[in-house]
Amino acid sequence: MPVKKSMTIRLGDTCVLCKQQKEDGIQLCEVHVCEECEQKLVDVNVDDEVYPFYVVELRRLSLERFL
Ligand SMILES: [Zn+2]
Predict the structure, then answer these.
(1) In 3-state terms, what secondary structure has residue 34?
(2) Ligand 1 centroid vs 67 CA: distance in angstroms?
(3) Domain tally, the chain
């Protein structure tokens, strides 16, 4: 059996922010965020209107996982 390269992310996970299955991405507190949304998170300003959405969504999902 060929050894698959190990990665810190699970491929094909559903991004919690855009709800799309993406191969690329990062794991934030066991929550999968695709590369695209990660970039948005990095670039987003506190003044940005999408900022509350990201924060609330991430917090909600993190809490769900930990409770
Ligand atoms: Zn995404």
Answers:
(1) strand
(2) 23
(3) 1
